[in-house]
C-alpha cells in the first residue's frame, strides 16, 4: 500500500502566480495551492485582502507574497510576472482567475458594462498569457497556465449579458495559446466552473433568485461547486501529473454540461 501521507504535494517546489486572488475561487485556490506545496504570488486590486490572505497562508506553513494591481493594465500585469520571477527566480505556473460579471439581456447592457466585462475577462487574460508565456520562454520553456473560463463559455444562457461571450473568448485564447506554446513545453488549459458558491453567485441570487434555484436544480449533483473544488481542479492541471494535458477546457459543474 502506498503511504499517501508521505507523498509530496501536487505543486511541491513550484512558484505559482494567482491573478484575481483576493476572494472566491482565487482565494480558495491560493489555500489549495499552498497546501499542495506551491509558493504563491497573490495578485489583485485589493492590497488589504491580499495581505490578509497571505498572512493566513503563512500561518499554515505556506509561502506567499503579494502584488497589487489591475489585470486590465498592461504595466500592472508585467509587474505581477516580474515580481514572481524576482522573488523566486522563475515562474512555474499561473492561474488567471480575475473576472467580473453582469446580469441582463443583451439589449439591456450599457456600453460601459460591456467594456468593463471585456477588459477584465478577455483583455486581462490575454495580457496575463502574454507576459507569463514570455517569462516561461525566457526560462527555456516549460510551465503550466490555467485560465478561468466558465460553462458560459461552452454554451449560451439567457440573462447573463455579454459574460458568456467573454468566456467564449477565454476558451479561444486558451486553445490558441496551447497550440502556440506546446512546442516549448508550456501547457495551457482552462477550468470552466458552473454555479459556484462565490460572491458572484450570491449577487446573481439577489438579482434573480428563481433563476439561481432553477440552475442548481438542473445540476445532476444538485449542488453548486465550492471555490476550493475549482481550485483542486486547477492545481491538478498545473501539476506534473497532468503533463500530457493541454488545450483542454475542464467543466467543474456537477455534470450540468454532460
From TrEMBL:
- One Pfam entry for this protein is adh_short_C2
Q: What class of enzyme is it?
A: oxidoreductase
Annotated Ketoreductase domain residues: 14-194
From the UniProt record, which GO molecular function terms apply?
A: glucose 1-dehydrogenase [NAD(P)+] activity
Q: Which keywords does this Swiss-Prot/TrEMBL entry list?
A: NAD, Oxidoreductase
Recorded E.C. number(s)? 1.1.1.47
SUPFAM superfamilies for the chain: NAD(P)-binding Rossmann-fold domains
Hydrolase found in the keyword field: no
Q: Which family does it belong to?
A: Belongs to the short-chain dehydrogenases/reductases (SDR) family.
Q: What is this protein called?
A: Glucose 1-dehydrogenase
From which source organism is this entry?
Schumannella soli
Q: What's the source species' lineage?
A: Bacteria, Bacillati, Actinomycetota, Actinomycetes, Micrococcales
Amino acid at each position: 500500500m502506498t503511504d499517501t501521507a508521505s507523498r509530496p504535494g501536487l505543486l511541491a517546489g513550484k512558484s505559482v502566480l494567482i491573478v484575481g486572488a483576493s476572494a472566491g475561487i482565487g482565494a480558495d485556490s491560493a489555500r489549495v495551492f499552498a497546501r499542495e506545496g506551491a509558493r504563491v504570488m497573490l495578485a489583485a486590486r485589493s492590497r488589504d485582502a491580499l495581505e490578509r490572505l497571505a498572512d493566513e497562508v503563512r500561518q499554515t506553513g505556506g509561502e506567499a507574497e503579494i502584488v497589487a494591481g489591475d489585470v486590465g493594465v498592461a504595466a500592472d500585469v508585467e509587474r505581477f510576472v516580474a515580481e514572481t520571477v524576482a522573488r523566486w527566480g522563475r515562474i512555474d505556473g499561473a492561474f488567471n482567475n480575475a473576472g467580473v460579471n453582469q446580469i441582463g439581456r443583451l439589449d439591456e447592457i450599457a456600453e460601459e458594462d460591456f467594456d468593463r466585462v471585456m477588459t477584465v475577462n478577455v483583455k486581462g487574460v490575454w495580457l496575463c498569457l502574454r507576459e507569463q508565456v514570455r517569462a516561461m520562454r525566457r526560462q527555456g520553456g516549460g510551465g503550466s497556465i490555467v485560465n478561468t473560463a466558465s460553462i458560459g463559455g461552452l454554451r449560451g444562457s439567457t440573462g447573463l449579458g455579454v459574460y458568456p461571450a467573454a468566456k467564449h473568448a477565454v476558451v479561444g485564447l486558451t486553445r490558441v495559446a496551447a497550440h502556440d506554446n506546446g512546442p516549448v513545453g508550456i501547457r495551457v488549459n482552462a477550468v470552466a466552473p458552473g454555479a459556484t458558491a462565490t460572491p458572484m453567485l450570491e449577487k446573481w441570487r439577489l438579482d434573480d433568485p428563481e433563476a439561481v434555484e432553477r440552475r442548481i436544480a438542473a445540476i445532476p449533483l444538485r449542488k453548486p461547486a465550492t471555490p476550493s473544488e475549482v481550485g483542486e481542479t486547477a492545481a491538478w492541471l498545473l501539476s506534473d501529473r497532468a503533463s500530457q494535458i493541454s488545450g483542454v477546457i475542464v467543466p467543474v459543474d456537477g455534470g450540468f454540461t454532460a
